[in-house]
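Why do we care about 3D structure at all? Because function follows from shape, and shape follows, mostly, from sequence. That is the central idea of this module. The next example makes it concrete: a single protein chain, its amino acid sequence, and then its structure expressed as tokens.
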Amino acid sequence: MKSQIEDLGGNEDDNKDYIPGDTSMGMNAKDGKVDDPQDPNQIIDPNDPLDRRFLVQLPEDVRVERIARVVDVKTIWRQGIRELETILADHISKMSEQFEDYAMEYETVRGQISTNHAFLQRYYHDMQARLNEKYEKIMKERMAWEKEKDEIKALTKMDSEVIHLNVGGTVQMSTERDVLRLVPGS
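And the structure:
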């Protein structure tokens, strides 16, 4: 026992008043004063190996008049959890129904858009084919017209001079010199 007391910084004579199991709790054996654990200026007795100053008065006074039975608390807890589970299940089912409705609406709109897209593709391909046919006809007619124009050019000379004639003083006419010379000797 002596070695334990010396390890705490004192000797056996300083702790001779300490009695194991003493319930005086804070009574200073040397001077007879009561220790005040709230007093920060009070020095802890270095010779007290157990230092019982942890027994302090708490700032709040707690009074319990009735303690609920654990079974009642568990019952209330389970009821609350069941209500939460029911509410959560209702919300999840509503969300699921709304999601399914929106998904079906999306699929309907998607199908309509795909149908319209396919229709427009076919329509514009057909329209392009019709336009290509018309263009080819126009080009054929233009080639025929150009050919016909060349044939007409070959029949007549286009380099004759245009003459303006005053007929009767009030009427004017224009004609080519070659037309006036068609009749021999004129």
